[in-house]
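Hypothesis: this fold can be encoded by more than one sequence.
Test: take the structure tokens below, design a sequence, compare later.
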């Protein structure tokens, strides 16, 4: 029964873990919101080329999370891209996103390194 005294620390550790998860989530949302605001201030819409795609395990409802890399050429002919971008797709749509396929991307005209993937969410379909 000596191990039971460790259980009293769970009262402190569990809420602390929840608070850290909430803080991390809100920081990530702020960063994504700031990036979206920068891109939307002067956007350029273009089709990028998929250079790598790694599908995850599909769920029972036909949804799969993928990680993809893509690259595009801006208006001045410079090459840019993004790596390990996460997207959620329907399993049947996975065949449309092979290496070499085009995906919609938007980027900031003044700083093309600030770019984002514009795939539709599966909830809107």
């Amino acid at each position: 029964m000596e191990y039971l005294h460790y259980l009293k620390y769970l009262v402190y550790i569990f809420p602390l873990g929840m608070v850290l998860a909430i803080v991390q989530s809100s920081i990530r949302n702020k960063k994504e919101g700031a990036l979206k605001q920068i891109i939307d201030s002067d956007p350029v819409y273009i089709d990028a080329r998929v250079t790598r795609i790694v599908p995850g395990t599909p769920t029972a409802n036909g949804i799969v999370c993928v990680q993809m890399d893509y690259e595009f050429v801006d208006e001045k002919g410079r090459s840019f891209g993004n790596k390990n971008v996460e997207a959620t797709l329907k399993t049947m749509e996975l065949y449309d996103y092979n290496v070499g396929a085009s995906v919609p991307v938007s980027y900031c005209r003044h700083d093309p390194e600030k770019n984002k993937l514009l795939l539709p969410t599966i909830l809107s379909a």
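The chain has one domain: 2-117. The CA atoms of residues 7 and 13 lie 10 Å apart.
Hypothesis status: open.
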